[in-house]
Amino acid sequence: VKDIAGFGMTIDIALVNGCLSVGDKIIIAGQEGPIVTQIRRLLMPASNQELRTTNQYQNDDTIKGARGIKIVARGLEKAMAG
């Protein structure tokens, strides 16, 4: 869980199979119970960049397939990793 300037709180995920879209409702494990929130943005690193080392992101409305992405949503401050 990271606070990224211009985006707010984000989480890094590895989308292995399926599809995520802006506006989808997601449930994340939180320190005080489940966090139900809605995806505000889906960020991918620029081509040939690692998710954890870049500060330039592509903003997409829908992500499919296997890739690492950042999710921007409300209420992620107390999200748990793992």
Automatic annotation (TrEMBL):
GO molecular function: GTP binding; translation initiation factor activity
PANTHER family registered for this protein in UniProt: EUKARYOTIC TRANSLATION INITIATION FACTOR 5B, TRANSLATION INITIATION FACTOR IF-2-RELATED
The entry's keywords: GTP-binding, Nucleotide-binding
An example Gene Ontology CC term for this record: mitochondrion
InterPro entries: TIF_IF2, Transl_B-barrel_sf
Protein name according to UniProt: Eukaryotic translation initiation factor 5B
